Amino acid sequence: MDLAMSFQRAKLVLTGLELGLFRALAEEPAGEADLRDRLALHPRGTTHFLRALTELGLLELVGGRYRASPAARQYLVPGQEGYLGGFLHAADAVMYPAWGRLAEGLRTGEAQAATFSGSAMFEQLYADDDKRDDFVGMAESSSRPLIPALAETFDWSSVKTVLELGGCRGNTVAGLVRAHPHLSATVLDLPPLRPVFDEHMARLGTAGAVSFQEGDFFTGPLPEADVVMIGHCLVDWTDDQRKTVIRNAHSAVRPGGAFLIWDPVLVPGEESYLRNLLRSLNLQLMTPHGAGYRLEDCRKWLQDSGFADVSHRSLGHDVTIVVARKDN
Ligand SMILES: C[S@@+](CC[C@H](N)C(=O)[O-])C[C@H]1O[C@@H](n2cnc3c(N)ncnc32)[C@H](O)[C@@H]1O
């Protein structure tokens, strides 16, 4: 029963976010009556809603007043370093309804997300500023925790130039350049992201170190770089499309350089396997073409494209980085 009814717990967390509960309590702890006033909640249900969130470890009740627990403050309060709300907002508004149509998705193979229709996913997302900002927030909630490991698990000391394919508004590469200021970086992404890239780099103070190139990683040719990397992108596409991107990347990596891929790759037997199978199903519901892929398939695509030495390691957070070297 716990397994079958686990959507109830999920909805407690997502509804707390939707109501602004964690933000309100991080600003000021409050008793129930005060909270009901501040969030415009009806008495029926509220007591048990707050008590259940307390039992889940997201609220603490001290001296008759609720406050956000340390975990809620870290992950569920806007403005905090670990804030996951960008992702969880999309989880609530888009993924939750789409998972309600899982059977339909399995019967038809069609995406079930209400944010777009047909196969032109990014064009539709970027035609609407709110949808674009939600998508960017969601992407960064997933990639932000990986930046420290990305900066440390690869030896950047002899790398001069790095190109991130599908680098969005540059958040990941900006973190990398801050950790390794000798790097000169380029983000290649679709034209509608240029204005949000410019704004974000100005805010982070990395405008001089990271440039934006409008482009399409399927059509190439891509700008050359010592290291080309792509994260949380190949999962959005079919195997044939992935092979095309990998071939284009091979042409762009300078001899002696490397191509880095990070994704929630499917590795049977690893602790991440079930969660990444669920992510794969999520991609099938959310995108026209996406699905998880297996490490051994990725390794083969890289070798078939001419990369010499392929290795992998974990970046944490269920994400595997695959490192492929190009011969001198
Ligand atoms: C899921 S997001 C990942 C963003 C970023 N790498 C991260 O992990 O935060 C996929 C990115 O691929 C970009 N993209 C999609 N199709 C593309 C194409 N044909 N050429 C270049 N970028 C593309 C999107 O605009 C988006 O920024």
TrEMBL record:
Keyword match Transmembrane: no
InterPro entries given in the database record: COMT-like, COMT_C, COMT_dimerisation, SAM-dependent_MTases_sf, WH-like_DNA-bd_sf, WH_DNA-bd_sf
KW S-adenosyl-L-methionine (keyword) present: yes
Listed GO biological process terms: methylation
Keywords assigned by UniProt, alphabetized: Methyltransferase, S-adenosyl-L-methionine, Transferase, Ubiquinone
Domain O-methyltransferase dimerisation as annotated: residue spans: 1-77
Residue ranges of domain O-methyltransferase C-terminal in the record: 99-307
Molecular-function GO term, any one: protein dimerization activity
Name used for this protein in its record: Ubiquinone/menaquinone biosynthesis C-methylase UbiE
Species whose genome carries this gene: Amycolatopsis rubida
